[in-house]
Sequence to fold (241 residues):
Amino acid sequence: MDEQLTANETFEALRALEQFDREIAGFMQRLAALEPEVMEAEGRLSELGSQAKAARARIEKIDARLRKFERASQAGRETLKRLQQRAKEVQNLKQHTAVRLETDAARRNLEAAEDELLESMQDAEEAGGALAAIEHELEEQRTAYEALKAETGARRAELEAEISVQRDRRQNRELRLDRAALRLYESVRGGRTRQALAPVTPDGVCGHCYTFVPLQRQAEIRMGRRLFLCEGCGIILYPGD
Ligand SMILES: [Zn+2]
Fold:
């Protein structure tokens, strides 16, 4: 029995091979596209983490300042109280003037400390709100990231399974193909995702680059004695419908 495939069978097999290769390339592309999305989400999470850290450091600073002016206000009030007591005990104008000057100075100090305290309290409230917003955003992004990771993992497994199935099918098809035809196909394709086959159109041109195929060659392609490459683009030509 003749094991040689007919030309038409060879063309069919090569077209099937090309179809498998195209599908495998498509799955590989989708697989590669999954990675950047996850990395982008990781980048966002890390950026929010840094923002939260900075916000907490700011709150710590504000709290320290707040405590400092709380103490200063408390001390200022005590000083004033002491001076009021002393004012009651003055015995002459000189003492009276001295107490009054000290009291004025103490009041100004207290006012300054209270202003600073108030400002610190406002800062603390604002910084607390900012941190809460960042933490809320962080929580949302973390949930989205977990979902994306799970989804991506499932999608990756699916795509890998598809690729493996298509590779098996391709290999089965390849086994039944003429070695010379297979080598030609591989060399035209060049290991890339380039198109390797095109039909000769009813007008007698290459279906890929539209270079005219000489009549004699068209006849040979139709008879299918051997494979011919397009003179224009080097693609394998097969008889069109
Ligand atoms: Zn061509």
Observations:
- The chain has a mean pLDDT of 92.
